Amino acid sequence: MKILVTGAAGFIGYHLCEKLIKLGYQVVGIDNINGYYDINLKLARLKQLGITSIYEHKVSVSDKHNDSFHFLKLSLEDQVQLPLLFKQYSFDVVCNLAAQAGVRYSIEEPMIYVESNIVGFMNFLNVC
Hints:
Helix content is about 45%, strand content about 20%. The protein contains 5 helices and 5 strands. It has a 5-stranded mixed beta sheet with strand order 3-4-2-1-5, with helices on one face. It starts with a strand and ends with a helix.
């Protein structure tokens, strides 16, 4: 079974990926790795999953879990690459944990919040 986890470099996304891999699923994680939280934390989590190289629009295969975990740096707002990802993998299950966090930040930068959490989510629903 192929499972997509969005927000895979976040705290909850990372732990979900770890658990799903241990349960024997093939997991594909995506994250835009934005700078709202410390990027080094996100990169460290991905490293724990065996992702040592990250490329824009190119899938990285885990050094630790091989075919059980793939990662792609990708935003849900990307209306070109996201549909291609769905065509490439034919996911059985999707778990959307991607979101621009921060209530205060949504007031300071409302368009970033709208793009990520509203437009990105609608794009995600369309490809599902």
